[in-house]
Every structure is written in structure tokens, then in C-alpha cells.
């Protein structure tokens, strides 16, 4: 199994993250002052996503990444490979994402005057407390909603990227850096726009602890959120998700493509 896509995915995920960090910091009210936790998590997750995507395409079309501009895979294959990458990365993303959401939420409530001291002292303490209080399976709370969010939307992510690249470089040439930046940015925005409703549901399910199991499942969470807050609830965070998605994914794809071209 070729591994360079995993390495390129690792590095490009970390670079994308550096750009996304100010947005995440706004979202998290400055909780992640250090960058080591997000770097470690996003880089590993992105490495799995791009590595599995590329190797699935190799299995489906028998073309390596060097051959794919001259012999472009069909959009159906791109979609299946993207969904596969999305599905597999969830198992790594789920615990990291849960910790992020729990820390984010406690920072938000801490901002209110007279609120109790924070329950978790940081990412490691948060992981250890969840394991202790909810068992190791507690680290995967909300993973099903995350799977539903990421599997189709990462298929859409790679199809959007490929489609935009092929519009400006139709003759089997490598797309220019400007094209890669724009295509990567719009791939990020499109997939985040589609993912936002399930992102809202996923975060709500992750916040439900074992003692207050508020939802019976994804559908129950959707129905109750819509009933109580109206359909607008499914678009919460859409603007910040899109604003963050453009630079993060532009840089992720640019560095990914350049690293792979550079390694031959
Ligand atoms: C599928 N969904 C849109 C949810 C995520 C796309 C992930 C792409 C990139 N790691 C980022 O953080 O933007």
C-alpha cells in the first residue's frame, strides 16, 4: 500500500490547521491556546482521510496518483473513495472531536458570571475523565452521528475538488496552484455546508453524558431540536464553518498536491 499519500495528508492537514486555528479559537473562546492537541489530531485524521482515499482509488481504478491526471477516475469512483476515506477517519476523529466539543462547551458556559469551575482541566484530563465516568466506549459518544456527517460529505468534498480542477485543466494537465487553492477552498465550503445540519446534531449527542441521556438516537435528537428551536437550528454555525473551510482546505489541498508532485 503506497504510504506517501498518508504522509502528504499528515503534513497538509497540519498546515491547513495553522490557518484554521484563529477561527477555531474564536469558536472556542480561546480555549486552545496551545496548538499541540489540534495539530496532533487534525494531522492524524487528515493523513487517514487522504491515505485511504487515494488507496481506495488505486484499488478501484488501478491508477496511482501520478497517473490520475492523464487517466482521470470517474466521479463515481472519486465519490466512493471519498466516502470510504470519510468513513474510516471517523474512528480516529470521534474521540478527538468529542474532547474538543466537551472543552468548547465548558468554556462557553464558564464565560457566564457565577458559573462553577471547569470540569475538565485540558484535553488529557478530559479524555481520562470520560474513560473513568463513562467507560472507554464513552469516548465514542456521538460517533454514529459523526459517521453520518462525514461519510457522504467527504465524498462530496473530493468530487467538488476534482470537478473544479478539471474545469480549468481539462486536458490531463496538472492544475495550477491558483486552481488548486480555489478548488480546495470551495470543496471545503461545499462539504461543510452540507455537513452543518448533522454537525449540530452530532455535537448535541456528544454533550449528552451517561447520567443525562437526553436523546434516544440521531432521529430523536433531530426531531426534538427542530420542534424546540425551529428548522434554523440545523444551520447554526454555517457562516463560521464556511469562513474557516475556505482557507483551511485551500492550503490543505495545495500542500498535498505539491508534496506528492515533489516526491514524484
Ligand atoms: C466533512 N466535513 C465537512 C465535516 C469535514 C471536512 C474536513 C476537511 C478539513 N479537515 C476541515 O477541517 O475543514
From TrEMBL:
InterPro entries per the UniProt record, alphabetical: MCP_dom_sf, MCP_transmembrane, Mitochondrial_Carrier
Membrane topology annotation: Multi-pass membrane protein
MF GO annotations: transmembrane transporter activity
Main location: mitochondrion
Classification via SUPFAM superfamilies: Mitochondrial carrier
Keyword Repeat: yes
Gene Ontology cellular component list: mitochondrial inner membrane
Annotated transmembrane regions: 6-23, 35-54, 74-94
Places the protein is found: Mitochondrion inner membrane
UniProt entry tagged with the keyword Transmembrane helix: yes
Alphabetized UniProt keyword annotations: Membrane, Mitochondrion, Mitochondrion inner membrane, Repeat, Transmembrane, Transmembrane helix, Transport
Pfam families named among the record's database cross-references: Mito_carr
Repeat region (Solcar), residues: 73-167, 175-262
Family that this chain belongs to: Belongs to the mitochondrial carrier (TC 2.A.29) family.
Name of protein: Solute carrier family 25 member 45
Organism of derivation: Ailuropoda melanoleuca (Giant panda)
Amino acid at each position: 500500500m503506497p504510504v506517501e499519500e498518508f504522509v502528504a495528508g499528515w503534513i497538509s492537514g497540519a498546515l491547513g490547521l495553522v490557518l484554521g486555528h484563529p477561527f477555531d479559537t474564536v469558536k472556542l473562546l480561546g480555549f486552545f491556546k496551545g496548538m499541540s492537541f489540534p495539530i496532533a489530531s487534525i494531522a492524524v485524521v487528515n493523513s487517514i482521510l487522504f491515505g485511504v482515499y487515494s488507496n481506495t482509488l488505486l484499488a478501484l481504478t488501478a491508477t496511482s496518483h501520478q497517473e490520475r491526471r492523464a487517466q482521470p477516475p470517474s466521479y463515481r469512483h472519486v465519490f466512493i473513495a471519498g466516502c470510504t476515506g470519510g468513513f474510516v477517519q471517523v474512528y480516529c476523529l470521534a474521540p478527538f472531536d468529542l474532547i474538543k466539543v466537551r472543552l468548547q462547551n465548558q468554556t462557553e458556559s464558564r464565560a457566564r458570571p457565577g458559573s462553577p469551575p471547569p470540569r475538565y482541566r485540558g484535553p488529557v484530563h478530559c479524555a481520562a475523565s470520560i474513560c473513568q465516568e463513562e467507560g472507554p466506549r464513552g469516548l465514542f459518544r456521538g460517533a454514529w452521528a459523526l459517521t453520518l456527517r462525514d461519510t457522504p460529505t467527504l465524498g462530496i468534498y473530493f468530487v467538488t475538488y476534482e470537478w473544479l480542477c478539471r474545469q480549468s485543466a481539462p486536458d490531463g494537465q496538472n492544475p495550477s496552484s491558483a486552481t488548486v487553492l480555489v478548488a480546495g477552498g470551495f470543496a471545503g465550503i461545499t462539504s461543510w455546508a452540507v455537513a452543518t445540519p448533522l454537525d449540530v446534531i452530532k455535537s448535541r449527542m456528544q454533550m449528552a453524558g451517561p447520567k443525562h441521556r437526553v436523546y434516544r438516537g440521531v432521529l430523536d435528537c433531530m426531531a426534538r431540536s427542530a420542534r424546540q428551536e425551529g428548522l434554523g437550528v440545523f444551520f447554526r454555525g454555517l457562516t463560521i464553518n464556511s469562513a474557516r473551510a475556505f482557507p483551511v482546505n485551500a492550503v490543505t489541498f495545495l500542500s498535498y498536491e505539491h508534496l506528492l508532485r515533489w516526491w514524484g
